[in-house]
């Protein structure tokens, strides 16, 4: 780890001011500190924002506002989240381990970086995300965990967060602050596709701090299903976050997002468009999944993800539109 | 160089020949094991009791001190920089920035490292401990991707780590062979422990071609890495000409001798201790970190602590090599094997002697009329592979026992019945009698306990919601070994006894079991016996490997015990109740000796010692050569039962129940034994479902050097595991016991694969069985 300066932010304004001097924000540190140990991240200074806003409040519109420093465990355990946003509670609980969730913050979780093995191998592998223009060793290497949607010739990495997939399906909005002021960004717009600059992962400015995440009112039924190589402590090969409202056998409204398939949480808008207003049956679900995956593109090791995603989308929709257990 | 061509190997071969001759000349009763160990018959003593581990309280309270926890004055911390090419030479190695970094004491490279001899590779000498024989930081040559090229020594670990990241190395690469398929055409016959991995009985190909039913299939297993929870670590100092190592080791005496060879000093000038080891599994032998730490300590004149990072373990400590195994089985319509052919390929490096010997289990498991077994090996420019729990049997039984399941299916025969029909009367290859073989008992008891009769023979016929449910079984097997070199010091005082032997406690419960055995042998309470181990100054050259340590210690303690009785009789005198009795006619009970046929004639050790004015008696006994192995075919067995569910939508395989029914001779301590069995099975579940070292074949680099990306089972992957055992003593081993450390991993992967077949109708022949193979 490279020597660095460390300071605690007194409040959001203080954090933003300190970040202007080249500091990085530190939340729970569950990813950033790992990356610093691997010398992939070498910040000169850290501003600790883990003591900032960490409340969960119900908002007047029937939604919820989650402070960015709220620990993952606290979000998943919150009664309102459990009751109205089971997709979010389940997504969080399916990620990492209890110890990591106790540390990880909501803002930090969104800004996790990929677990691509070649990204993590600073000394021995080429990676355009670490060093733009260097080349990508994953494309012709081990890519079983990599992207089937939205990848570029420069980068085939996937975003690792479960929570972010649920937030994408919930139409959550990120509240941010810079020295210039505050703004709001839809979670679905927060992360970029890799293009030719996979090193730029979000649309946040360098000194832009996530201060809160707002959830709009929820659809009546939602869930998160994560498929992985072992029962716990493994990243998603494919995950599906879904929320629906069904009446009289028709889909009134639906939100779908996929994890483990792209450089960002993948909001499945094509599938939603086919489903919305249509019959809530298996044929429609399959057609929706097929439409969403029509442009999916396999690498040498990850072709199975296309079929896996299709099956998992259908299964989640069947679960959400079927009899309540 | 093959072992047989090595001069030291030749000497070993000659010694083995002498042993074989001695057997021919000696009457059976003389052969060790010919007269059963009297402990075998004792039913209600310390042996066989579920004694809790004596090191348990130390471990849960954090007071057991491991290799990386010994403080030394003026100690520096080491960090290693690893190469990023597979083969070639270092062109530049820019260390100035590291040298100038805060806290840095020294940077060691091939330019300034002390001049050293190469490590003696395993088998080149009875005490050789090296995983390979490559020179350690002596020149600019690179032999594998991940080879250490620099060691930074600093006042703190963090400073050392940071400085290591400041070193810039450039390389000139040379063509390297890192892809298995590229090397395939250069495969050569493989040798293991000095013997060819090739066996033939009858004409197997001919027998196969005329068999009524035949199975031909190819099975593949990937590379595996060691992931003991304790990272490899040494704390090292040169003190008054003695090289002192606090180590995490499963072979302290071997390490002391081998480091002596490397540094050009006598082995008694190297002191290696290893009181606690957080898991060994074959990985805690001697690797470059030992040599680098000792060299660095010499270079900077201060004690050095070197703890490998988890990545460091992957770069520097070998694991299990990959295999590609072809199994052909020919049977008559009743399922009796006419032909068993098991052959294939593995990979090693030019500098080590460890082809994965996957045919071992096929030598003795089934009574096939004709047998052909063969291992060929290619050589790759990778880190030297090594022993990993049940080398050979772990992956070999996956192939053999999957093929047996396929044969049972083809015959429409119950897989257990097929195995029982092929149970041999004598060793199928050597013709030797079995010392004790009760696998059929284990099968029957296991099938009953597991509820095997509830299994549907039709694959894919049981579904619960989204989940397809199936059952499978397989034979596990591991041989009884006892290596030469066991010796133990036995010290008797009025308070009790202590055993000293350079053996190892890596978490298996060795110390506890040996205290039980010694207490029983000497007629002492458990708390009157101490067991000293993990110190190269103690007698014996004992490898904690091959599941042989318990037998090696047992045989040495038996020898020491005989000497002790003799010494006691030298001082017993005419006033003792034992006066006039011969040593052969006594037994031990109640902290003393008695006449075997007249236990009332008894005198305590304390009384004997007091009368003779002696504070203690100390003897050192050497275990005899393992001649029992020349007379009997000696193997443990397990009947493994698995229930899985496979998600019909996602293909996710999850093991829901497992039962191992073991025939391993006498169980010395059911509590520690159950943990050994379960631990082996859990490792077998990882072998079946998830473990795989991802070596990028373009450059030979391990790409998943961490526990987050290299998957081993988490708690949720491990179901309730039942373990039962026959507990039938083997009359030809010390204590009637055979080793139990490795057998749990054998057969397990096949039981899982066979259960998955039963659940889904999909036969997966490539490990690990990940969900993509089941979609």
Automatic annotation (TrEMBL), chain A:
Residue span(s) of domain FAD-binding PCMH-type: 1-220
Q: Which PROSITE patterns match?
A: FAD_PCMH
What's in the keyword line of the UniProt record?
FAD, Flavoprotein
* Molecular-function GO terms, alphabetical: FAD binding; oxidoreductase activity
Tell me which Gene3D superfamilies the record gives: 3.30.465.10, CO dehydrogenase flavoprotein, C-terminal domain, Uridine Diphospho-n-acetylenolpyruvylglucosamine Reductase, domain 2
Q: Domain of life of the organism in this record?
A: Bacteria
The entry's protein name is: Xanthine dehydrogenase family protein subunit M
List the source organism. Novosphingobium pentaromativorans
From TrEMBL, chain B:
Q: Which residues form the signal peptide?
A: none
What is a single Pfam family found in this protein's UniProt entry?
MoCoBD_2
InterPro entries attached here?
A: Ald_Oxase/Xan_DH_a/b, Ald_Oxase/Xan_DH_a/b_sf, Ald_Oxase/xanthine_DH-like, AldOxase/xan_DH_MoCoBD1, AldOxase/xan_DH_MoCoBD2, AldOxase/xan_DH_Mopterin-bd_sf
Q: Which GO terms describe its molecular function?
A: iron ion binding; oxidoreductase activity
- Which SMART domains does UniProt cross-reference here? Ald_Xan_dh_C
Which residue numbers delimit the Aldehyde oxidase/xanthine dehydrogenase a/b hammerhead domain? Answer: 61-175
The answer, when asked if Cytoplasm is one of the entry's keywords, is no
Q: Which UniProt keywords apply?
A: Molybdenum, Oxidoreductase
Name this protein carries in UniProt: Xanthine dehydrogenase family protein molybdopterin-binding subunit
What is the source species? Novosphingobium pentaromativorans
